Structure formats: structure tokens, C-alpha cells
Amino acid sequence: MKNTLSTVSKMLLVGGLALSMPLALALTGCEKKETAHSTDDGHDHGSEGGGTGSGASTDGAAAPSNRVDIPASVRQNLGITFAKVESRNVAQTLRVPGRFELLPTARREYRTPLAGRVDILVSQYQKVEPGTPLYRVDAAAWRDLHEQIAATSARVESMAPLLAAQAEHERSLTEKVALWQERLDQLDTLRDAGGGSATQFTEARATLNASQSELSVARGRSAELAAQKKQAEAELRSLTSRHELLVRGGNCGDRHEGIDAGSGYTVCAVAEGVVESVGITPGGLAEENGHIVTLVQPDQIRFRARGLQSDLGRLRDGLPARIAAPQGGSLPLQDAMSGVLQIGLAADADERTVDLVVVPETLAPWARTGVSAHLEVTLAGGTEELAIPQSAVVRDGARGIIFRRDPANPDKVIRMEADLGMSDGRWVVIASGVKEGDEIVLGGNFQLMLATSGSTEKAGHFHSDGTFHEGSH
Predict the structure, then answer these.
(1) Is the predicted pLDDT of residue 181 greater than 70, yes or no?
(2) What is the C-alpha separation between 406 and 438, in angstroms, rounded?
(3) Residues 154 and 240 in one domain
(4) How is residue 271 annotated by DSSP?
(5) Of 380, 408, 443, which residue is a domain's last?
(6) Angle 42-46-48 (CA atoms, 0-180°, nearest 5)?
(7) What is the Cα gyration radius of the chain?
(8) pTM
(9) Are residues 218 and 286 in the same domain?
(10) What strand order describes the sheet that includes 265-268?
(11) pLDDT in the model for residue 471
């Protein structure tokens, strides 16, 4: 070692270069470690003269080990991830591909009941809460409605004094008729007694008839005024009901209170959601019942898969099911959603498939309409066994290898030959060597296998740059 350092120093001096202490340590550090590694005979050799150092002997040889150091820096560089051992019914699991879709009730269209010029108050993909204004319509019909309500209300109010005056007029005519009837009766009694004047009797009869005629006309006028009042009240109720219907349809609360139509007719969101599309340009003219805005509730989704009709004998409504994330991406393998299977009402005769639908009980953050995944249906029968992801197993020749995280030291993994059983293509039964909850290397396991291949009985460690060295630091 000294000869090596002397040679290096001479070469640097000849070249006219100055070597700093950190660089010298970097050049010599790995060499020192390599000379301190155990040889094939199990002894540690010193760094000088190839002899045995003062602190090493044949009795101090390290015991064979299948453990590998993976500190945090190594895990990050190699992209090492873990999956837990869990109990699964691998033998009776049916897996079919599918995708998420919106529930029929997740989408709501907002149409304008009035024709007019539209001002859009939201933007696409904007999140809205109940009561958020979506758009405003400058509609002539909205202003006319308020004017009609005001005019009809005034007409109803003016009918009250007219009816009161007419009732007073009718009462006076009734009294007049009663008086002349009494006068006529008196004259008739005098005439029967041989007195009285025929002219007086005739005049009284004529006046009574005229008063009765006026009373009849007054009663007719009263009935006409009452009918007009009822008609005006009915019109007012109709206009008010239409106004209230529009107000409820707009769902903007006190923004529509009163009869001031200067701000236009505003439509607000009924429920929370996201603006999916806008059906008109801002300031455009919309026809009555024209489509303006569509909102969706992204969390109102279900999963639809297409199973084979040949599996109908094993499927039934109510079976437990899981929706698993697609493989090969950044999503955690065990980030799955549970639900209950519902078989579609109709099958596809040409494709020989049937729809399998599951509404997740809870949604994972990655679940959204259009995302593809796999539906795992647990069929009747079978038992749960310990299982690990199939991708956690790598092949070293003919042997299946897994790396189990050391429960006593999370910065170490233990290389193991996997005792595997039945597989469903994604999960595989492991018969021994692990217990439920143990962590198995999932991402980065192939790099670990390459680094430890042929040396599984020797302890080793990774450097932060991802290189593997046998022996301890």
C-alpha cells in the first residue's frame, strides 16, 4: 500500500499537480476496504505486506450472511419499494380488466329557461360549491315577468276600493227599494179602503220598478268586479308561481328576491362539482331551454369490467371484489378499493362478454373516470393464504428469489429463496419464510438480485452511488 501511494505521489509531482486531502482519501479509501475484505478461506488480511494484521485472526472471520445493507440513499438511488405480505384467496380470485366511469347521477346540465344574452360567470374545470353563480341571462322575458307582476299586483290592490264603493251603492239601492215597496204597500191598503190616488199608486209602482232595476244592475256590477278581482288574483298567483319556479330553478336564493330585474336572471349551482363544459361563448345569445353549463361530481364513479360469459356459473351478485391499481406505474400495488359485485343486466352476444360493475366503498386518490385497472372478484370456496406480489419474485437461474426486509434493521434486507405456491398472475402464494405484515422488496429487486447473484452467502453493502461491495464497511 505504501509503495502504491509513493508511486502515485511521484506521478503527481512530475505532472506539476497538487492533490488535496479529500481527493487523496477518495483514491485510497476503496483500496483500503478491498484489501480488508475476507478472502475465500474466511480470513481477514491486513493492509501491509499481505500478512495478518494485529487485530485480525482466523478466529475473527465473519460468519456467512445473506443480508445486504440498503441505507436510505441506496433505496433512493435504486428505487427500492416494498410490498407487505398479506392473506389472500389466490386460488379463487378472478381478475378482469376494466375502467372507471361516471355514475348516471354524477353529471348535471344547466339550461336557461329564458332566451337572452348570456354572461358566463365560471370557467372550465373550476370547482364550485352549492350556490355559486354559474351564468346570468339578460332576458326580456325576465323583465316582462316582473313588470307583469307589478301591474297585476296594482290591479288587484285597486279592486278593493272599487268593490267597497260598489257594495255601498248596492246597499243604498236595497234600502231605496225597501222604502218604495213599503210606500206601495201603504197606497195599496188605502185603495182597498176606498181612498188614495191612482196617480200616486202608479208613480210609486214606477219608482219601485226603477229602483229594483238599478239594484239588479248594481248587483251585476258587483259580481263583475268580484270576478275581475278573482281573475287578477289568479293571474298574480300564476305570475308569482312562475317567478318562484324560476327562482328555485336558478337556486340563487335572495339574489332573485323582489321585483328588480335590472341585474338579469342568474343561475347558481345546485350541488358541488367541477365545470366540465360550457355550451355557449360569453355574451352569446341563447334560446329558451338552451344548454349553457355542465357540471360533474368526479367522486361519483363506478368501475365497469368485461368478464367472460363462460364465468357466469361462478359469478353472482354480492360477491366481494377489489379494484387494483394497474401494474407497472407509480401507484402502490396494494392501494386497492373494495366493493360488492353487480352483474350487468345484459351480455354481449358477439363478444361473449358480460359487464361486471362495482361501486367502490371508498375512493383512492388515483381513481377517476377513464382510468384503467383490474377487478379482482373473490369467488366462493377456497381459503386465504399468505401471498406476495408476483413481481416481487426474481429469478436467479432456476431459483425464485425474494428480498425480505430485516424486521430488526430496516436498512437491511435478507435474500431468500422463495417457497412459492399457486399464482393468479398478480399474486403468488408463499408457503414459508415470511409472516403476514412482513415487507418484501418490490421495486429494485432485480438490481439486488444481480448484485448478490452467486454470492448469497456473503454479507455485502451498497454504496450511495448504487454500486455493491461484499463485506461490511
Answers:
(1) yes
(2) 9
(3) yes
(4) S
(5) 380
(6) 150
(7) 47
(8) 0.59
(9) no
(10) 265-268, 133-138, 116-120, 285-286
(11) 59
